[in-house]
Each structure stands twice: as structure tokens, then as C-alpha cells.
Hints:
Layout: H1 3-15, H2 28-36, H3 51-62, H4 73-76, E1 77-78, E2 87-88, H5 91-101, E3 107-109, E4 116-118, H6 129-136, E5 142-146, E6 152-153, H7 156-166, E7 172-179, E8 185-197, E9 203-204, H8 207-217, E10 224-234, E11 240-252, E12 255-257, E13 263-264, H9 267-277, E14 285-287, E15 291-293, H10 298-309, E16 315-319, H11 332-344, E17 353-357, E18 359-361, E19 367-368, H12 370-380, E20 388-389, H13 407-414, H14 416-421, H15 431-438, E21 445-448, E22 454-455, H16 458-468, E23 476-479, E24 485-488, E25 495-496, H17 501-507, E26 512-513, E27 520-521, H18 524-535, H19 541-554, E28 557-560, E29 564-567, H20 579-600
Parallel strand pairs: 17-29
Antiparallel strand pairs: 1-2, 3-4, 5-6, 5-7, 7-8, 8-9, 8-10, 10-11, 11-15, 12-13, 12-14, 16-17, 18-19, 18-20, 21-22, 21-23, 24-25, 24-28, 26-27, 28-29
Helix pairs in contact: 1-7, 18-19, 19-20
Amino acid sequence: MNMSTVWEHDFGISKATPVKRKHSNEGEAREEVSKKRKHGHKESHKRPNDPRRMDTMRENMNSTGKSYKFIIEEERYKCGVASCGHQSKAPGDFERHLKEMHGIIKRFKCPHCNDRLEASNDRNRMCTPVDVMRHLELHGNDLFSCFHCQSVFSTEFEVQLHLIRRHLTLEFKYHHKNFDAKGQASVVDDVNVKFECNMCHQHVPTTALAMEHFKMSHTGANVDFTAIQFVDRMTRSLEVVSIPVHRAFLLQQHLICASCDSTLATKERLIAHHRQKHDTRPLAIRLSPLMCFNNFTASSVVEMTKMNSQFDRHIMYTCAHCPETGTYFSKVEDVLTHWSKTHETEDQLPFRFHAIPLVACIHCQTLSTFHDLVRHHAQKHSNQPFVAVNPINQNQCSVCNFVSDNLIDHFCLEHSTILQENIMNPVCLSEGTVNQLLEINVRKNFKCGRCDTILETENDMKDHYLDEHKTLEFDRIEFNDNQSVQLLGGCCHLDLDQITFFEHLANHERNFCCPKCTFHTSDSFEFMDHGIEAHEIHNDACTLDLNNMKTWYWNSRYVFGNGLVLSKYNLIGTSIDDSQRFKEFAQTFVAEREKSHYKKL
């Protein structure tokens, strides 16, 4: 079953009202079968050969309540719309008749059981040809009924979806009847399902426990289980056989494109879909509800398990040379291909990439990158304050990991300048994620065999030899550079010494421009005096100096040997984080400068 079919059925179940029937008491045979069930091996129970008792046991075992009479296919498709009476021998012809002649149906009375299907006052609950066809199939060869309530379905897929939607905390059990050409129940099954985690192979009995298992054991991964069916089958000889059935279906949670509601299994597919269909729109993602897939291949299981095992399943990659294009990549190898075609030879720029984690909108739980979430917020929640939260823990700030039940006040108080400064990716990464990003090796650097100088291209190395080692034979070593790091200052974008980085920010030349006139100066106290004297505006010099240093600090970037570019925001809470030391340094510097200024006066 393809993805679109699954999603269509998913919404079909949620909108359609299951057929209801009166409750029937459970018989003794049903109780004995339930007590003696043993999964995984064959077991027989003999009963007296009484056909009437056998029919009663079948009815109890399936607990269908209302009995739907089997109608052969040639006579099943008769129209129940008033004054019509049309009959078709094939389901396709009958469905075409319903669509062409009746469309939205106000009232349909089943000619076989007198059930009435009617349109509701709710516009979203209209009686459609699909509803009629679904009901008529209840008079077909197969009936599936829920173990826990009175809902009856014509397909196994529908009863499975019903159990996922309505009975999350209960055992995944249902009944199945198959009728032969004479209308006799030739097969009566009691189906019990166990869920096996595709990541760690642990078994759980309910869908609620499956979701809880992934939340606790595989944090951040999408739910991914193989559902294994066990069947108690009652034969015509009154023998109940418990056997494991080699049929299974997948219970998974996928990604949904919020722009068009398309469902995609993996990050790779979602990015490709977004690039093809919504290239000019902000990236917007939702997590799907639990979905089941009856027709699947081994490769689909491997694909989901592979995605869940990746540390970067919630990370998008971009080229650091053209982030404004909004082009996302699912893996760094794709960024390298883009760079080779676009920047390596024509622009002669070094390989650089950003790792951009997904964040969630606090108002609607939509997932996106920080940059695109700002665009999403402007379109959908413009009258609400902007807040980006952790996609796994929505009480955790995505910028600084602060945890609170009131993140709106926290974000407005602590991070309002982020939006004003238009910072692209101010989202913190964990220590483990940073270490794994540094282990990415998609391109080798070159080390000089004479002086250990590290350069990124062979042409750069040849130029280095011409300048430094003219008389020596050309010698270079290719290697994966996971150790070297550059710190590019936010004030001048030059490679700075990490030891003197704070002092560089403190002593870097400033430029204060008056918004009222053409006056400008590099001295904050002179700028403060000008504002008071010329415009009666009071600008605190210490605040101006402090804000300057903060802006330069947070706009500084680390460039690692493998091409990874991270901002100071990305490293909050890691061993590389020096934001607290900088805060103390900056406050001390500003206080001393203020003291020195007034001492001169």
C-alpha cells in the first residue's frame, strides 16, 4: 500500500462512524479459548461435534453482535437511495454509479440489512460513495471486529487503524470471520498482536506502551515497530489451534509536510519533496500520528531504522556560502556535491557547512529551522510572541536549554535581541552532537611534509611550496582534519587567537553613528555627551560598550577542520562554551572603563 493510500484511509477512519451493534454476552467457549491461548506453538482442543454449538462459538469468539448476512458479489451492489434500485455486478461499476448519479448522499438504506447511512448536519460528516461501498463490503467474504467495543469493519487494515486510534492502552486484539461462497463462516480467527521494536527488538503489548518505549528508550526517534500477529483459529471440526502467523505490519510515525500534508517516511524524502514542491516557502514539518502499513518491504524497515539510528535525524545541513537561499540538505555529502559544482572552481571558496537543528513552534508544535520558524511565525502567529522550543521537550528553550513552564516570558526577556540581529541559527547543540559532527569526514585536507602547515586545497599547497620551500621536492599528506579549529571574530571576521579573543573584542574600534544627524565617533562617552547636548537623548556609554561586545561575541564563529561552522550559540553548555567567562570579562572591562573616564574628569 502506498503512502497516499495509507493517509487517505487514516482520515477515512477518523471521519467515518463505525457500524454499531448491540452488545452480546461472552459465551463459555470464548472464556475457555482466552484462558488456554498459548502463542508460539500448536495446541488443539476438542469439542463435541455439534454444528449448532460450533456456530454459537464462532459468534461468541468474534463478538460481532449484529450479524451481517453474506451476499455474493453479483448481488451485493444494489443501490439503496430512494427511488433508484440500480444494481451492478462489479464494485467499480457501482461506485461509478454512486459518484455520477448521486454524489453526496443524503440517505442510503442498505437493501440487505436495513442499516441507514445518512448525512450529518456537520459539513465534515457527509455520506459519500466511499461510505456506502465500505458498508456494503460488510456483506462480503470477510468481517473484522474489535475485541474491545462494538465496531465492525470489512478490512483488516481498518480494524488495525481503529485499535490504534481508539484503544491505545488496551491489548491489540480483534476477530476475523471469512465466509465461503455459500455464506458459511469457514474461518474464525481470534487475532492477537505483539509489537517488536525495530531498534532494540523489545516486545510490548499495546500501542501506548510502544509510544512510551520510544519516548523513554529512543528519545527523539520516530516510533518504529513490526507488529507480529498470533492467531487462535477455530476449524469446522471444532478444533482451536494457536499458531504464530507469518504476517506482520509496520507501526510507524512519519514526517508530514505542513505545507501540503504529504507524508514522508524519512528526512531525505521530506527535504527532496520540499525542494521540489515548496522551494520558496518556509520549511514546516509535523509528526504524524501512529500509522500502520500492511504491505511493506524489508528495505522500508531498514530505511526507517537507519534514520532513527542517525544522530542527525533532527539536523538539516546548509552550505555556509549561500545560506540565504534556504536550500537544505539531508547529509553533508550532498553539501559537498553542491560546493564542488558551485563554489570550488568558480568562486574558489573553501568547503564550509552549517549544521542546523530543528526547533518547534510553541504555539502549534510545527518543526522547522530557526530561520524558517521566524517566517512561519510571521505568517501564522503574528499576534503572538515568538518562542522556539526543543522539539522533544517543549518546556525547554531551544537557544539556551533553560527549562520552564513559562518560556514566553523567558524568551522575551533573554533572547529578544536575537530576532533584531537576524541571527540565522542561534540553537544550542549537545556535547555529544558536536563531537559526532566533528567526526564527519567527507573531504580531506593537505598537510605540508616540510613544516606541518595545513591547507584545504592542493593548489594552495603548491603556492605554499613556491613561497616557503622553492628548492625542496613537493611533499604533502592527505588526511581527515578533525583537530584544527579557527575562531573568526564577529567584529572583523579575522582568524583570532582564542587566548586573546576577549581582549580583541574589548579593544576593537567602535563606530557609533547618531540617528538624528551625521555625527559619528568611536568613543561611547563622546557619543553619550553628543546625544545629551545636541538632541537631549541620554545613551548610557557603558550599555553601548557592553552591547557592542555582546553582539561581536555572539556573531563570532568556529570553523573546524572538516568544514563545520558553528556559532557561539551552538556551543552553549558544551566544553567549548566560554560565554559565562566572557560575561564576567565584559562587565569588568566596562566598569573599569567607566571608572577611568570619570577619573580623568
